[in-house]
Amino acid sequence: MILTVTPNPSLDRTYEVPALRRGGLLRAEGDRVEPGGKGVNVARAVAAGGGATTAVLPLGGAEGALLARLLDGRGIDVVGVELAGSTRVNVTLVEPDGLLTKVNAPGPTLSPAEADALLETVRARSADAEWIACCGSLPRGLGPAWYAELVARAHPAGARIALDTSGQALVAALAHRPDVVKPNVDELAETVGRPLRTVGDAADAARELRARGAGAVLASLGADGQLLVEAEGTYWGHAPVAAVRSDVGAGDASLAGFLAAGGRGPGALAAAVAHGAAAVGLPGSAMPTAADLAPSAVVTTADVPVDRPLTAGQGGGTT
């Protein structure tokens, strides 16, 4: 079972608009509401693939109640920590050419008691999990060391921990030795404090994160594939994508595929690449099912193309 932790979940409302005009009246041609947040997306991807998953998240107000119902309807076991504030609502405007304009709300401020209740809920549930995926930005009220404290409390139960965050929160958690960290190339560059221009540069940066405490590093390189750097070796994976419809949640789908496939070795990397490639071909933040995957199109190799230049402007980030 994969337990996911999303400290700052959201309801994601998407409007399809004919064109984005500042100061004008926009009439949406379609709209939808979906569960949001990186850990929530991981849970959705695991459930879409037929796996067992539990989502731990703070929930508040009518927005939190709706988020819980949406996740329950997708076969996800929801364990909510009640908040005095309301779950945030993010807004995305989609133009016909696929260009996205996003407004991410800051989310509620968690009290010290709510922050500790969230940590204790994860600890209490960790004994039943094979993996704990801790993902996304930290809401107001949670300091940069919150993920580090989560790793320290949950690890003794025996679950392996995958961490997908950035900045000071990632740096602080490394000392507590998460089993896997999953930065994108921009987050990887930020953590080591230097630009990364080639796949080899990214591999060297990932090794530095391992030296600082990460058990393994699964790095998303955008159009340039994915890297896995672990004790057994360094692997690179890439899959062709016929058409990109949306990259929202693609990294989260990759992490779900990686963990569901065991979270170790080139086979798990192949699953991560297949899930990410399938996700970018789907609309919005839709998560791929088994029918969407094309594992035969995935190439994984220990012969890492170290001189391959990285595409500029990878984008992405922790939401």
TrEMBL record:
Transmembrane segments: none annotated. SUPFAM superfamilies: Ribokinase-like (SSF53613). Residues 22-286 form the Carbohydrate kinase PfkB domain. GO terms for molecular function: 1-phosphofructokinase activity; ATP binding. One of its GO terms (cellular component) is cytosol. Belongs to the carbohydrate kinase PfkB family. NCBIfam families: 1-PFK (TIGR03168), pfkB (TIGR03828). This is Fructose-1-phosphate kinase. The lineage of its organism: Bacteria, Bacillati, Actinomycetota, Actinomycetes, Kitasatosporales.
